[in-house]
Write a structure and sequence with these properties.
Layout lengths: L8 E4 L7 H11 L5 H8 L4 H11 L3 E5 L12 E2 L7
Length: 87
């Protein structure tokens, strides 16, 4: 399975899906089984900023964002999107 090349996926790292376990858990759904362990190991070699940096490197189709600025998280790794769409 290849990466979702043209599809843009948004992930709100400021919410419950922004924790490291969730982000590590979605890796299998974004890539083939050949490199899942390698990517996860690389993501876990450092702190949360490293996890996001490695995630972005492997999955550029996923747009990381938050509704607000996150303390301690490198601002170059995500965007702040204050526009909420309620369904």
């Amino acid at each position: 399975m290849e990466h979702y090349n043209k599809l843009k996926i948004k992930l709100n790292i400021g919410g419950p899906k922004g924790n490291a376990y969730y982000i590590l858990g979605i890796v299998p759904s974004l890539t083939s089984g050949d490199n899942i362990v390698e990517i996860r190991n690389e993501m876990m070699k450092g702190d949360y900023n490293n996890l996001l940096k490695v995630f972005k490197k492997h999955f550029p189709e996923v747009v990381l964002y938050s509704d607000e600025v996150l303390n301690g998280v490198d601002r170059t790794l995500y965007s702040v999107d204050r526009q909420l769409i309620e369904l």
